[in-house]
Design a protein that fits this description.
Blueprint lengths: L6 H9 L3 E5 L4 E2 L11 E14 L2 E12 H15 L6 H7 L4 E6 L12 E4 L28 H19 L8 E10 L7 H5 L5 E6 L10 E10 L1 H14 L3 E4 L5 H5 L14 H4 L8 E2 L2 E4 L7 E5 L6 E4 L4 E4 L3 E2 L8 H16 L4
Parallel strand pairs: 6-10, 7-13
Antiparallel strand pairs: 1-2, 1-3, 3-4, 4-5, 7-9, 8-9, 11-16, 12-15, 13-14, 14-15
């Protein structure tokens, strides 16, 4: 466990990329640099292949040992002192000075598992992106207009949705911030069923139209289903860590035009620039839709989602650290500041629903 405190072993591990140091942003840093902030740096040893069998099924498992850089330095100091003595009780002394956490990586890592060397070029890291505070209900919605998209596109869309659902389901659990919750669609009038519920029924369980006596909501039409709820801040941090531990790289860079993108050394480039595509790829049809959210303190008793039932876009999603209230869909609005009147409308719509529950 502590073999890498030997300077020779440590040097070999660093040279092979088996011992790395990252900062609080998840970026690789030089562990020997005098500028390392020891209180906000982690040394990671791995991957160490481990055999794992569950119910007779074998898995490819990588083990990573993680320790705070400041504790590692303390252990190295003690090791140097012990080399000058007889080394008695050395393991006990070293072990008491360092708390080691472990990370197991099981299963596919998509492009990285396929042997690709992946680099993500981004202007903002995830915690500074709008995705970090997004709603997080798993529902492939608002992607296209029915009647306009071709049948070929719809088949591609459904195929992609099934792949995405399978990928998220494989990561369900507290570590990735993914859980299954009941979702209630509320309406004051009979409406057409959502495309994804109609065309992808196998991805949503417990779907039912509820009678008035079967629910507490103050609306005449309620549909229940079970879907995944994703907490973006937790999920994005964990996926970022997996990406880095698998040898991925981040580069902070802003692209001003297509020529800058095509000048990259990589042979294959995936465009994930979102609204940036409008300028970079001259996509004049791309239109932003601004969504505004309100966050209130959490309530552990709330273990379901609601969508609809208000005067405009309305929903309530519970999270571990807060309850998210939505929302809005302001077409062709490029601004990013909250608007007081929208905030008041979101709060009032949700208040009208939960003040009038039939309990």
């Amino acid at each position: 466990m502590f073999t890498y405190i030997d300077p020779k072993v440590r040097s070999r591990l660093i040279g092979r990329g088996k011992l790395v140091t990252i900062n609080y942003d998840g970026s690789n840093i030089d562990s020997n640099s005098k500028f390392v902030d020891e209180n906000h740096a982690i040394s990671i040893l791995g991957p160490i292949p481990l055999p794992l069998s569950i119910l007779g099924v074998g898995y490819n498992v990588d083990w990573y040992a993680c320790v705070r850089h400041t504790e590692l330095n303390k252990v190295e100091e003690l090791a140097n002192e012990l080399r000058d003595s007889d080394g008695k009780n050395s393991f006990a002394i070293l072990a008491s000075s360092m708390a080691v956490n472990s990370v197991l990586i099981i299963g596919d890592r998509l492009l990285q598992d396929a042997g690709w060397d992946v680099t993500i070029y981004t202007r903002d890291i995830s915690r500074h992106s709008v995705s970090n505070v997004g709603a997080g209900q798993w529902a492939p919605t608002s992607v296209f207009d029915e009647g306009i998209a071709s049948k070929a596109f719809e088949e591609q869309y459904k195929y992609a949705a099934r792949i995405a659902h399978h990928a998220y389901q494989n990561l369900s659990g507290a570590q990735y911030g993914i859980r299954f919750l009941e979702n209630y669609y509320l309406s004051n009038e009979q409406t057409k069923e959502n495309y994804y519920l109609r065309e992808l029924p196998e991805l949503f369980s417990s779907v039912a139209d509820l009678e008035p006596h079967e629910h507490p909501f103050p609306v005449p039409f309620v549909k229940r289903t079970v879907t995944m709820m994703i907490e973006p801040a937790i999920f994005l941090r964990r996926v970022r860590d997996d990406f880095l531990l698998s040898g991925g790289h981040f580069k902070i860079q802003n692209f001003n035009n297509l020529d800058e993108i095509l000048s990259l050394k990589e042979n294959t480039i995936l465009n994930c620039t979102g609204l940036g595509s409008k300028a970079l790829f001259k996509d004049d049809e791309l239109t932003p839709v601004k969504g505004q959210l309100v966050f209130i303190p959490p309530d552990p008793a709330i273990d379901y989602l609601t969508v609809g039932g208000g005067s405009d876009v309305t929903y309530m999603f519970p999270r571990k650290g807060e309850i998210l209230l939505g929302g809005s869909g302001q077409i062709d609005d490029w601004t990013r500041h909250p608007e007081p009147e929208v905030t008041e409308r979101i709060i009032e719509d949700n208040k009208n629903i939960f003040d009038n529950l039939h309990i």
